[in-house]
Design a protein that fits this description.
The structure is a homodimer of 407-residue chains. Helices cover 42% and strands 15% of the residues of chain A. Chain A has 407 residues and is α/β, with parallel strands linked by helices. Chain A is built from 14 helices and 14 strands. The mean pLDDT of chain A is 95. In chain A, strands 4-10-9-8-7-5-6 form a seven-stranded mixed beta sheet, sandwiched between helices. In chain A, strands 1-2-3-12 form a four-stranded mixed beta sheet, covered by helices on one side. In chain A, 59% of the residues are buried. Chains A and B meet through α1, β1, α2, α4 and α5 of A and α1, β1, α2, α4 and α5 of B.
């Protein structure tokens, strides 16, 4: 058995399709984000502006977050030293869970090391709690939800993206007495479109299903206290399990679910992905709690974020560029080919100091490869001018279509 | 469908078996570990000594680690702001991966948010790279390895714990041309026994299998530079993939694999659990790198750690307590019943300020419930005296057997 030859084959497939990923090595400077330094493989450096980060609101450099992290480091040290059950539960974890439960108006919250593992662990554990559970999953759900739904081989139905009629057909076709759960997202991160939350909740009521929503790309940014789209639309009470992250708008790390006390208690007790892993460092929990707390009142930052996204979309549309616009903060420009997308990304980085990673399969479907911009309150007018000029020049230079694929 | 009733049932099963877990809420004080403060549910506080942490060497409060974390926070901010591919690769991640690759004498290393996800993601991705792969897995492998082996429904064979003859039988029974991987641990965390690394490597050579070792409870603590038991026994070069953690002896957070450049490149490219999750905060990566670097030379700390474990085992044996002793740093005292174990743990905590969490199923097999002590270089002689006295009194008070189950 020639294992190396097999690895060569697997890697060659990626190169052949033009979707071999090269990580860009960057160093942020606190207080200067989105400005950062790109370190090339040869060790030379170039100043860049990050246009594809998920620190959507710039909270990763907010003094309230950093002060909390420094304080916790000084008070308690580096790691937690254990799983939640074996010496790894601290007052910092409890405070953060209380902050999150309050954010979503739920009885309880449960921390995980990432929203990926929160999705995976929770969705794969629910069939143990509700034997015979059927999970109805939006076809564009995040990889972590797909992994969780698949993991234990439970019953699943995939409904067409945001297609409530299709979901209804699938629900109606199953045994009315079977336990059911509908899993979907509030903001789909690659197109930036919204899930039909109310219509799905109505169906859940009609068919006696539980509801599970991934608000990873919405928490902190939507709703009067940052509780996500479910808070904005006053629907949080109709959702049984809300999944969120502390690593994007909140600028730190970690993920969670918020739900009833009983449900969190059961997941806490039965999910291997929760039980058998070291808890978050207290300093991370402290920073995240400070960020969640801060964004409960900083509506100005949310407003500016939305304004920045609107402006960028308007200006890209003005150039006739094929952007997708569903009214969220995410600005995808469709290129439609992995090699072209990578080339454009390289030209932006090397020629203009603009860093936007190419997004290829499996993150997005083949043929919809794109550049995905994430404007934030910390991107100034000058940075946006530079970006617009660069995109205009590149689109002309490469003789790319304008507006053809716009949504 | 009454979902709450189902949750009640699931939780009742745990209560009935006496294995419902109550998290103990503690607050460490930097510089004073293993001393900490226990916050009771009613809000009152009691000073305690932690005897069950996995910060085995006390590195979670080492100045070299904390300074590196403070510095990175000041230089770069809180979170990384993205997945490794999308703006979340920093110089801190690269430095840490280089430090780890060097530690294990491998070409490459790949960071994950935990060793749990490193195991799960890697073991579930290998069958994609080597179609038809058969994984031979020790029956006492950690939950994260079990989850990874199970996830994609690939072929698996479970061999009896540390039973090289059984493993040989299983290997011999399969198609010689099939790709194979043997997955095992160097130190099994609940009994503290060692895997037969050399014998397994010999079998791997004989049958053309890859080798995968979990060194989570060994890195930092064994080997002249902390490279684990594979370094101590000069066998690292015979292992294809070494899995380790930054959250135990290194005192911070995160997990990794170390392997050939090609293998890391392929896992990096194909594992959803690596691709779709925010990378570690730079401050965590900086602290972990400082810890790995420091322990490459601090042999005195390793020696003291082993001495502490030897002393504790000797003294517990002197009392005739049923401890398991395989010569590692882990000191399990078998109780053999979940309710008694919980009761003993509660009495130690409340009556003596000694915190050692009861270990129940599914962490250990039913009937082997235990108290698991983790002495460290920062536990002083006075703390050990107190522990010995408390155990002696409790064993007499509860009329528990002495030495009956000793290994």
């Amino acid at each position: 058995m020639d294992y190396n030859a097999k690895l060569d084959e697997a890697l060659k497939r990626l190169h052949d399709e033009g979707r071999y990923r090269t990580f860009i090595d960057i160093e942020r400077e606190k207080g200067n984000y989105p400005h950062a330094t790109w370190r090339r493989p040869d060790g030379s450096e170039q100043p860049i502006t990050v246009w594809c980060g998920n620190d959507y609101l710039g909270m990763g450099q907010h003094p309230v977050v950093l002060d909390a992290m420094h304080e916790a480091l000084d008070a308690t040290g580096a790691g937690s030293g254990g799983t939640r059950n074996i010496s790894g539960t601290t007052v910092y974890h409890k405070r953060l869970e209380a902050e999150i439960a309050d954010l979503h108006g739920k009885e309880s919250a449960l921390l995980f090391t990432s929203a990926y593992i929160a999705n995976d662990a929770t969705l794969s554990t629910l069939p143990k709690l509700f034997p015979g559970l059927i999970i109805y999953s939006d076809e564009l759900n995040h990889a972590s939800m797909i992994e969780g739904v698949r993991r234990n081989g439970g019953a699943k139905r995939i409904f067409r993206h945001n297609d409530v009629e299709h979901l209804r057909e699938l629900l109606a076709a199953d045994d009315p007495a079977a336990p059911k759960l509908i899993a979907f997202e509030s903001v789909y991160s690659m197109d930036g479109d919204f899930g039909p939350i109310e219509a799905i909740c109505d169906l859940a009521d009609e068919f006696g299903a539980l509801t599970y929503i991934d608000e990873v790309h919405a928490v902190g940014m939507y709703g009067p206290r940052g509780g996500g789209v479910t808070e904005r639309d006053r629907l949080a009470h109709r959702i049984d399990i809300i999944n969120g992250t502390l690593a994007k708008a909140y600028g730190v790390m970690g993920g969670y679910i918020a739900a009833s006390f009983k449900l969190c208690d059961a997941i806490r007790s039965y999910a291997p992905g929760f039980i058998f892993t070291t808890s978050l460092p207290p300093t991370v929990a402290a920073g995240a709690a400070a960020s969640v707390r801060h964004l409960k009142t900083d509506q100005a930052r949310r407003d500016l974020h939305q304004q920045q996204a609107k402006t960028l979309k308007l200006r890209l549309k003005g150039l006739g560029l094929p952007i997708i616009d569903h009214g969220s903060h995410i600005v995808p420009v469709i290129v439609g080919d992995p090699v072209h997308t990578k080339k454009l990304s390289d030209m932006l980085l090397e020629g203009y100091g603009i860093y936007v990673q190419p997004i290829n399969f499996p993150t997005v479907p083949r043929g919809t490869e794109r550049l995905r911009f994430t404007p934030s309150p910390v991107h100034g007018p000058e940075e946006m001018d530079k970006l617009i000029r660069a995109m205009d020049q590149l689109w002309s230079h490469c003789a790319l279509n304008r507006a053809e694929l716009a949504g």
